Amino acid sequence: MKVSIGNANQNTAGIFYALSAYVLWGMLPLYWKLLEDVTAIEILAHRILWSFVLMSLVVFFTGGWKSIVVALVDKKKLLLIFLCGFVVSLNWFTYIYAVNSGFVIEASMGYYINPLVVVLLGVTVFREKLGRWQLAALSLAALGVLIIAVQYGRIPWIAILLAGSFAAYGLIKKIVHMNPVSGLTLETFIVMPFALLFIVNLETAGTGALGTVPIPTKLILVGAGLITATPLFLFARGIERTTFSMIGFLQYIAPTITLFLGVFIFTEHFSLPHLVSFCFIWIALIIFTLANVGILKEQSNIKTKDFVSHKEA
Questions:
Q1: Out of 6-15, 179-188, 227-236, 302-311, which region has the weakest mean confidence (pLDDT)?
Q2: For residue 305, what is the DSSP state?
Q3: CB 36: neighbour CB atoms within 10 A?
Q4: Which one of 44, 158, 188, 236 is most buried, counting C-beta atoms within 10 A?
Q5: By the 8 A CB rule, do 279 and 140 touch?
Q6: What does pTM read for this prediction?
Q7: What b/e string do you get for 245-266 counting C-beta neighbours within 10 Å, with b at 16 or more?
Q8: What are the pLDDT digits (tens) for 137-172?
């Protein structure tokens, strides 16, 4: 079958957009590290506030209010979007806390195991069937998490919370069916009043970052909206122009960059048990991906598109 030059160019552009989005997501720890003097909860509040401001401007200039109005009058959809807002806020807070508390490696683990948690949700929520290779992948990933839990002497809650919250967010987004721009605008709008109230209380008490930190730090806080929206735009463009299989391969770029940052830039401790644990997870992901694109043959009702959710972190 001959592929037209136009389709080839579209696919190349899609790969470029998606690759750019995942690289930006992977580099996010460098941005949050610039705000180490600000608490994670205050960073989260500013991220929500300025994301809402920026997304509202985008919606205003692109005429996307129609889909928002439709969602507002649909009680079921509005409830789901309300849940989306709080779930993504939990995900954002956990990630920011992880980065600024020295758990970047554990955060990367969370996004490595996220696709496998999505599979579990597919099985439990949608009653989808798993093939033998997918079951093998899940078992290996679980063993990897168990190894690191024994090493820590505790459950790696940051990794599990990041993977679980983002998988839940993707599940809700799959049910809601809204475009990323309108969806994120509504999600941030729902939690924005809480964020704004928190910021106002801090500033009134004289302990807020806007009144105490240097001007560059203030600009970085405000820039949290842009750093949130930019990869979302790139991802949305990418997923329209290339295949889900390609997106499936590219999605591991972000946690890989994050892992390298944690080990080589932030010099977090990476022990032999860490390496063994990650090896089990990496092998699981290889098996999972090969099965998902049909290289490893098996009967399964789960399709590639079910593993790909819009990244928000």
A1: 302-311
A2: G
A3: 12
A4: 188
A5: no
A6: 0.87
A7: ebbbebbbbbbebbbebbbeee
A8: 889 998 998 998 888 788 899 999 999 999 899 888
The residue to which tokens 């033998």 are assigned: 132
Ordered by start, the domain boundaries in the chain are 8-307
Q: What is the H or E stretch that residue 291 is in?
A: helix 272-292
Output the CA–CA distances (angstroms, integers) from residue 129 to 79, 122, 300, in the order listed.
28, 8, 6
pLDDT in the model for residue 253: 93
177: left (phi over 0), alpha (psi -120 to 50) or beta: left
CA dihedral 103, 108, 112, 114 (to 10 degrees): 60
pLDDT of residue 298: 58
């295949």: which residue's tokens?
A: 243
Single out the residue of 42, 25, 165, 33 nearest to residue 103, CA to CA.
33
CA distance 76 to 73: 9
Q: Are 107 and 162 in contact (CB under 8 A)?
A: yes
pLDDT digits (tens, 9 = 90+) for 216-226: 999 999 999 99
